Each structure stands twice: as C-alpha cells, then as structure tokens.
Amino acid sequence: MGVIERKEREKEEMRKSILDAARKLFLEHGYEKTSIRNIAEAIEYSPGTIYLYYKDKNEIIFALHNESFGVMMAYFQAIVSIEDPFERLVAMGRKYLDFAFENPELYELMFLMKSPIETLECRSEIWEHGHLATGMLKMIIADCIKEGYFKNTDIEAMCMIIWSSVHGLATLHVSKRTSMYPEDERAGRIWAGFEMMVKMMRNGL
User: What are the pLDDT digits (tens) for 153-187?
Assistant: First the structure.
C-alpha cells in the first residue's frame, strides 16, 4: 500500500471513529448536551482534530443522518426485483421493520431525533433522503393502482397512511413502548399488527 492510500485509509478510519463516538453520545445525552469537546474526549483526541474533518456539530449529525439512510436504502434493494407491485409494497414494509429491529440506534437518529431535520432547516436544504424513500413508496403505490389493487386512490394520501402506519409500529418497538407486554410477545405483536394492515389493504380498505 502506497503512502497516499495509507493516509486516505487513516482519514477514513478517523472519520468513522468520530461518527461512531458522536452517534453514541447523541443518543445517550442528546444532541444539545453533546459538545465537540465531548466527542474529542471519547476518541482521546483534541477538539482541533475533530475540526480537521467536520466544521461543526451540525455537519457531524448531517453525516450520521446520511450514513444511516444509506444503510436503510440497502435493505430496500432486495425488493426491486419483485414483479408484483403489491407484494413489492408489502416487502418494502417488512424491510422497513427489519431495519428498525436490527438497527434501533440508526432508526432513532433518523426518525425520532429532531436534530437532523433542524440541521437541514438551518442549511436551507430539503430532506433529500426523505424524498427519496417516499418517492420509492409512491412509485410502488402507483404501480399497484395500475394493476387494480387500489381504486380511486390519492397517491400522496396513501403514501402518508402507509408510511405513518409502518413507522408507528417501528417506533413502538424502538422506543420500547411494547415493554408493557411479556418479552416473548413484543416482536410478535408488532408483526401481527403489520400483517393485519396488509390484510386490510389487500381487501381494499
């Protein structure tokens, strides 16, 4: 490995260390209560080192947000080849829940923390990843309409209903609101709720 390649690898490793430490601190203590100095202490470097990679805390939370969405979109790649649009829609919902179950910390950062969205507002940018994910969902809904699964359906409204329903199930799990049930029933109740939603959509409700 050449000098240039080694230096680039070291930079990427440092970025990863910064993001890993920041993610842990943001989730444990909150975005507002976490400082650049806190992050630097966690990786045992000076705050000046952090600024060599990220200009401020907003840029760090933005990078974490982008990274997390990249992981979720990778889950959705598995549904692209499903020919039947309704089955593709159901598979997208299952993958959304799989992502939340398997990556609760990423899900919390993406959908439960306000800071990433507030950061976007400060930067006067749109939520590009949100548009990408909902755009994919709306395309599948449009295909379902073409195939006769949904009639007289407003795509935007249907998108919001499906997203909010699956998001609600995922959030109940990630936020541990199902802890009121026996531990061995919690995941099953979420999936049962999802299957009931699928049955209702299949019946045209």
Answer: 899 999 999 999 999 999 999 999 999 999 999 99
pTM to 2 decimal places: 0.85
User: What domain range is 125 assigned to?
Assistant: 64-202
Q: At what angle do helices 128-146 and 57-76 cross, to 10 degrees?
A: 20
Does residue 143 sit in the same domain as residue 178?
A: yes
d(CA 46, CA 37): 7
Which ranges constitute the DSSP H helices of the chain?
3-29, 36-42, 47-51, 57-76, 85-102, 104-107, 115-122, 128-146, 155-174, 183-202
Same domain, 43 and 131: no
